[in-house]
Design brief:
The chain is 75% helix and 3% strand. The protein has twelve helices and three strands, in the order E-H-H-E-H-H-H-H-E-H-H-H-H-H-H. A three-stranded mixed sheet has the order 2-1-3. Helix 3 runs parallel beside helix 9 (209-228). It is globular.
C-alpha cells in the first residue's frame, strides 16, 4: 500500500516477528511465556524489595525502578503481538504508533540512566564506604530516580519532533513487531538527515555515550579500589557486591551495540528484529535471574519471607 503524504496514513500494519503462518502459534506462546516470566520475575523482585527491610537500600531502590522499567518496556512492545494473534487485527493508528515509539524510546533512555545511577551507588559503596549512608540517603536516591525518569522522557522529544515532520511514506506496512525508529526511517521517503543528526548529537552528548562513560569511569575507580584491598576474601566480597549490576550493564550495552551500531552491510530489517527482540524481551527476562541467582542478599530475603509465610500459616 503506497502513500504519498503523511495525512493520508491513518494507520500502520505491523507485520510481526514472522510472517510464516505455521510459526504464528509458536511465536504467540513463546512471546506469552517470555512476557509472563518477565512480569512475574520483575514484580517478585519489586515486591521482595518492598517487603524485606534488609533490602531497603539504595541498590534495591534503583533495582525496583529497573524492574518497573522492564515491565513497562516489555508491555509496550509485545502487547500488539498478543492482541493481534487473538483478534487478527495487525493495524495500529498513526497516533498510536507514534506514542508507542515515544514511550519505548523514553523507557530505554531512562533504563540507561537508572543503570548509571546504580553504578554511582556501587562506586560510593566501595570507594567511599564511610560516607555511603550520607552520600546515598533516601532524598538523594529519590532525586536521582526522578531525574532519570524525567530526563529519559524529555531527551526523546527532538526525535519525535523530527519524525512528525516526515511528509511521506513508501508504505504503511512496518516490517517489525512494534513501532520503532529504525523501521520508520526505512519506511519513509522523506529526508531523514535531520533525524540522523539529532540521533548522532544526542547519542554523543546525552542519550548513550554519557551514561556509558559515567558507568565505565565508575567501574575503573571501583576496580582500582578493589585491587587495593589486601585480602583475597575482601577483594572477592567487594567485587561480589557489584557483579550483578556489571552483568546487567554488559548484557544491555552489548544488545544495544548489536542492534544500532552494526555495519550497514548487515543492517537488514529481519536481522534488526532479532536483535530488537533480544533487547526488549531477553534482557528484561534475564535481569531477575541475574539479581536472584548471583545475589546472596536476595536469596536470604527469599528465605526470610518463606519462613515468615510458613509461620503465618
Amino acid at each position: 500500500m503506497t502513500q504519498t503524504n503523511q495525512t493520508a496514513i491513518k494507520y500502520f500494519i505491523i507485520k510481526g516477528i514472522s510472517e510464516i503462518p505455521e510459526l504464528q502459534t509458536l511465536m504467540f506462546f513463546l512471546v506469552l511465556v517470555i512476557y509472563l516470566i518477565t512480569v512475574g520475575g520483575n514484580l517478585a523482585i519489586l515486591l521482595l524489595a518492598c517487603l524485606d527491610v534488609h533490602l531497603h537500600t539504595p541498590m534495591y531502590f534503583f533495582l525496583g525502578n529497573l524492574s518497573i522499567l522492564d515491565v513497562f518496556c516489555l508491555t509496550i512492545t509485545l502487547h500488539k503481538i498478543l492482541i493481534s494473534f487473538i483478534s487478527g487485527n495487525k493495524t495500529v493508528p498513526f497516533t498510536g504508533c507514534m506514542s508507542q515509539m515515544y514511550i519505548f524510546s523514553s523507557l530505554t533512555c531512562s533504563e540507561l540512566l537508572i543503570l548509571t545511577a546504580m553504578s554511582y551507588d556501587r562506586y560510593v559503596a566501595i570507594c567511599n564506604p564511610f560516607h555511603y549512608h550520607m552520600a546515598m540517603n533516601s532524598r538523594v536516591c529519590i532525586l536521582l530516580a526522578v531525574a532519570c525518569w524525567i530526563l529519559g522522557f524529555v531527551e526523546v522529544i527532538p526525535h519525535m519532533w523530527a519524525i512528525s515532520h516526515f511528509s511521506c511514506y513508501k508504505s504503511n506496512e512496518i516490517n517489525h513487531y512494534f513501532c520503532d525508529i529504525l523501521p520508520i526511517m526505512k519506511l519513509t521517503c522523506s529526508d531523514t538527515t535531520v533525524l540522523k543528526l539529532i540521533i548522532f548529537v544526542e547519542g554523543l552528548l546525552l542519550v548513550s555515550f554519557p551514561p556509558f562513560l559515567l558507568t565505565f569511569v565508575s567501574y575503573v575507580f571501583i576496580i582500582m579500589s578493589i585491587l587495593k584491598i589486601r585480602t583475597s576474601s575482601g577483594r572477592k566480597k567487594a567485587f561480589y557486591t557489584c557483579s550483578s549490576h556489571l552483568t546487567v550493564v554488559g548484557v544491555l550495552y552489548l544488545s544495544l551495540v548489536c542492534q544500532y551500531l552494526r555495519p550497514t552491510s548487515t543492517d537488514t530489517l529481519d536481522s534488526n528484529k532479532l536483535f530488537s527482540l533480544f533487547n526488549t524481551a531477553a534482557v528484561p527476562v534475564l535481569n531477575p535471574f541475574i539479581y536472584s541467582l548471583k545475589n546472596k542478599d536476595v536469596k536470604s530475603a527469599v528465605k526470610r519471607q518463606l519462613r515468615w509465610f510458613k509461620v503465618f500459616h
